[in-house]
Amino acid sequence: MFFLYKQEIFKLLKKKSLWFCLLFIILQNIGVAILGNAYPKYINVPELFKYDFASLSFTVLILIAASSTIISTEYEYNTIKNIVMQPYSRTMILISKWLTILTYAIGIYLLSILMSLMNKFIFFNNSFSLTDRLNGKENMIWQDWLIVNGANFITLWLILSIVFLLASVMKKGAVAVIVGVVGYFAMNIIGSMMFVLIERWEFLKWNPLNFLNYPGQLANVGILSELTHLSNTQLLIGNLSYIVLFMGVGLYFFSKKEI
């Protein structure tokens, strides 16, 4: 199992796209920070900091692409046969790929966090303090920052579990990426209309799209909780449950997929 994981990490590190994406996150993070520093009257810098200067949104897209292709490209380039011929079950093969994306996700999140912290002290050292409280909130900025990052990481894996499921069914990497990215934007659009349906049909609050509101509800409990009809604890448990469900279904399809 550890050997499979090492193989996947080695293949990931050899991809030029990995280093391009990491460089992009660094430049994007700095660029947005510079923009916030140049137009402080129009940009809420503390709120921008809480979301890692917009890096969280780009991170989702990068990891959707990585998760879509880590499985499908094995079939596209016919390398899956070499992997399956090794003395490892398909379950172990897929889990090693999950762990590889988990490692990538942790790495890119830590990069975003470190860059945001660095930009805070370089560009906004005198603008706000990490111990400030915004709009009368109980939490300090640094607490909200870590909560937002943690919650986004959880909802990221709800999205990635769906992407892994799709990638386990499809054989074309490009198709899996397109479906994953388009699906991500579609979920955000549908999500804005979903609250009306939840208000009318209460049971719809348990649909997986509603659980993507977890980070937003933690940041704005009084507002979003009335729309999602769920508590923070329910949103957390629901996210974890759907992640296990979708990844389990993806594992089933991967084990039955023809080589």
Automatic annotation (TrEMBL):
Pfam families: ABC2_membrane_4. The chain crosses the membrane at residues 18-36, 56-77, 98-125, 145-167, 174-198, 235-254. Keywords: Membrane, Transmembrane, Transmembrane helix. PANTHER family: INTEGRAL MEMBRANE PROTEIN-RELATED, MEMBRANE PROTEIN. This is Putative membrane spanning protein.
